[in-house]
Here is the input.
Amino acid sequence: MANKLQPGPTPTGRTGATRDLQKIIGALTSPVRREILSLIWEREVSAGEIAKAFRVTKPTISQHLSVLREAGLVTTTAVGTSRLYRARPEELHGLYGALGGAGKWANADQVPERELSVARTSVAVIVEVEVETDQRETFRAFVDPIVYSRWLGVPVNIEDGRFACTLEWGTNVRGRYEVVSPPELIAMRWDFDDDNIPVPGGEMTAYLRVSARPAGSLVEVHQLVDTGPQAHFMEAAWSVVLGRFKLGVVRALDLTLEMPPRSPRRKRRLGS
Here is the structure.
């Protein structure tokens, strides 16, 4: 297994059942090719548009694209006389450790400023779901309070970046959107309480990202947590939210369709 990794889907024009690690590493040695991959990481881009983003000749860009294609790092789609390129991120899975130098994670010494700040390490719970709606409509379903209320099943208020709702079992959720960058990123701080309105200052941080997919969108939530029990709780909580989103977002976006509200209930069954 020194120079072979587990295979991904075979891209256009590529043969062989496994990835050629040497070709991939060779393709990534060029800063221009790495920049091209960043440009086409989540969307299809024509060769002409790629060339406009760089101060090199079109033949040079074509050569770089050929190297990336031969390494299996891009897919190509012919549209008329144009050719569209898109990165294949899955081909880089497992390579980061191989590509990182031995000193990458070694801190610089003799840096006195480090002692002036307080640092801590957190972990993140990641929950994701794929939906049929396009990226912009998917994103809108998290910032439009009417649409949000419809798919979540309870009234959601969003005003001046602050959001609030009460789930059908009585849990109060409050928070604020710190960053809203359509159509792909929301950074939020939020908290919840079963008996009282959450007190500001103890909020948790989460990042919601919407990525375009050929058949719709991918929604990912990265929730920062501090403890194992908190992580377990957040896995379940965000799975419920994104599960409701997957089930209801298509219907919620069509305001001509009715969506029944959720009936109040206990948080836990009696005796549990």
In short: DSSP finds eight helices and twelve strands in the chain. Residues 188 and 211 are 18 Å apart (CA to CA). Helices lie at 21-28, 31-39, 47-52, 58-70, 96-99, 135-140, 145-152, 228-253. The radius of gyration is 23 Å.
